[in-house]
Design goal:
Length: 559
């Protein structure tokens, strides 16, 4: 009787999970998924779908196999559910709660946690009841023990087969260890010049084995090294300058720059990929805007799954399965908090082609549907009309020294315009500065122990060095908000540089070369223009070829 009721509860839970998934799918179709809610919506939908289908499958299997084999299946599902909650959903809940959740976000995230916990508890009870019944006889005990062995063998065999099958769809090493999602160049129609290689980084196809007689330099960083609004990424530009300065030399600048990553990724990227490329030097780039490491309560714990190359239990054992799950559930830092609407690039291109009067209403509708669904569309339209002339004057094609219309800068500008006016703190965020300095010190010590020279470069934020960008931001609504943010970026950069030097790690602050020169950054996008990248490339090339700066500038003297 108890077992029958338990199975009824499991069926109800499976039906509820699938219903929850349908509701989230409908919410997405009618435009209720926006921003961080859109990301959590994907997490909730796929969690509910997988939970419901697994429960229904397990219940269906119980009617087609001997009863004494059911406890092992239920126990295996119980273990899987507990691991998924403990190493993924619970840390995710802790991290998101720190930022603050809206009502819908709370429902989705707590709903996903509740579903997995309820399923785990019921499966554990099922395993206990079925196991107790089987344990009453000697034959039942033997069957139960054989069931556990059979379960372990089936799991081992299934994992091996899955990992082997995923070789056909998951990028090979080192691409899967560098980029957690496949690169889609058709989503970057404004990309000009150098494209992406088979490793998923921007640049030519390099070889794992270093060519004889070549001085190979690894460039490790984030989107500033990708430089999608420049004709070539920074490493390619630096290599050209090095070869121009000394045509007889054989330089090779390898680009390991991946957008939406930070120094914690850089360390693992160097350990797992960089060392195998046999570099002669390594150049690390840290952007003052968003590269500082934010301390999270679950960061120090071992994760069940984390985007590669960050360490996790599954990542060490099953790298292909890890890559596939990260992409399927949108767990990478690049995809997190981003809704990625279907055909967004084509939609924004069409809006950009319209005059300002016709483009603003359509842009307002797009931003309301996918990014600010909690706000009335008219409120968004009013804000866009206010800033429209400033934005539309910047739009065009990078080859014409104009910017393409992209959702992320507009989202940031709208967020600042719609926020309450506040000057906010302007000092450095020392907890993040120190955490970042600790990781960079680890990188420095690790590479030095291998006999590989390392150079650190600090990239300033646009408003801190480019007077045109500073003027552009002053023309936007609530300039005090942005002024405080940019002052904090500036303070963070200076504090990080001072902390690294205090630890005996020289660093070159590129603000010294870029300061006061207009037109070095794209105001909307916040990354370098061709002009800004050329200036940075000159400074980097000089540092790599041989120190030509004073110790005050921060270049490490030759050893």
């Amino acid at each position: 009787m108890a077992l029958s009721r338990l199975k009824t509860l499991l069926r109800l839970l499976a039906t509820g999970a699938l219903g929850f998934a349908v509701l989230l799918a409908v919410a997405d179709k009618i435009g209720l998924g926006s921003g961080r809610f859109g990301y959590l919506q994907v997490v909730g939908l796929r969690t509910a779908l997988v939970t419901g289908l697994l429960l229904l499958f397990s219940l269906w299997r119980t009617d087609r196999r001997p009863p004494e084999r059911n406890p092992s299946m239920a126990l295996g599902l119980t273990a899987g559910g507990f691991l998924a909650w403990a190493f993924w959903l619970r840390p995710l809940l802790l991290q998101q709660t720190l930022i603050g959740l809206s009502d819908r976000q709370t429902i989705v995230l707590w709903g996903a946690n509740g579903l997995v916990l309820a399923a785990t508890g019921l499966l554990l009870a099922w395993s206990f009841l079925e196991g107790r019944a089987a344990w009453k006889t000697a034959a039942g005990r033997r069957a139960w023990q054989l069931g556990q062995l059979r379960l372990l063998f089936q799991l081992f065999l299934g994992v091996i087969l899955l990992e082997t099958a995923l070789s056909a769809v998951v990028p090979p090493w080192p691409a899967r260890a560098l980029r957690p999602i496949p690169i889609k160049t058709d989503a970057i129609p404004y990309l000009i010049g150098v494209g992406y290689n088979r490793w998923g980084t921007r640049g030519p196809d390099w070889t794992i084995q270093k060519p004889p007689g070549t001085a190979r330099v690894l460039f490790v960083g984030d989107s500033f090294l990708e430089g999608i609004l420049c004709r070539a990424p920074l490493p390619v530009t630096v290599e050209q300058r090095l070869l121009q300065a000394d045509p007889a030399a054989h330089w090779e600048c390898v680009n390991l720059g991946i957008a939406a990553t930070s120094p914690k990724h850089y360390l693992r990227r160097i350990e797992q990929v960089g060392l195998r490329l046999h570099p002669d030097q390594v150049a690390i780039f840290i952007y003052a805007g968003n590269d500082l490491i934010r301390i999270q309560p679950a960061e120090s714990r071992l994760f069940l799954i984390k985007e590669l190359p960050l360490p996790s239990l599954l990542g060490r054992l099953l790298p292909r399965s890890t890559w596939a799950l990260i992409h399927l559930f949108r767990l990478s830092e690049f995809e997190r908090d981003r809704p990625f609407p279907s055909k967004e690039t084509a939609r924004l291109q069409a809006i950009q082609a319209l005059p300002e009067a016709g483009g603003i209403p359509q842009l307002a509708e797009h931003m309301h549907r996918h990014y600010f669904s909690d706000l009335p569309q008219e409120t968004i339209s009013d804000s866009l009309r206010e800033i429209g002339p400033v934005i539309w004057a910047r739009l065009g094609n990078p080859s014409e020294e104009k910017e393409p219309l992209r959702a992320s800068p507009i989202r940031s500008i709208l967020g600042g315009a719609l926020a309450e006016s506040s000057d906010g703190p302007t000092g450095p965020e020392m907890d993040q500065v120190l955490a970042t300095a600790d990781t960079l010190a680890q990188i420095d010590a690790f590479l030095r122990s291998k006999g590989i020279p390392v150079h650190f470069f600090l990239i300033p934020a646009a408003a801190n060095v480019d007077p045109e960008c500073a003027l552009f931001y002053e023309r936007l609504p609530n300039p005090g908000n942005r002024r405080a943010v940019h002052a904090r970026f500036n303070a963070n950069r200076r504090a990080l540089g001072a902390e690294l030097r205090r630890r005996g790690i020289p660093v070159l602050d590129l603000a010294g070369r870029l300061n006061g020169i207009p037109g070095t950054y794209w105001p909307l996008d916040g990354h370098w223009t061709e002009k800004g990248q050329q200036i940075a490339a000159e400074a980097v090339a000089e540092a790599l070829a041989g120190p030509r700066f004073s110790e005050e500038d921060g270049v490490r003297p030759p050893e």
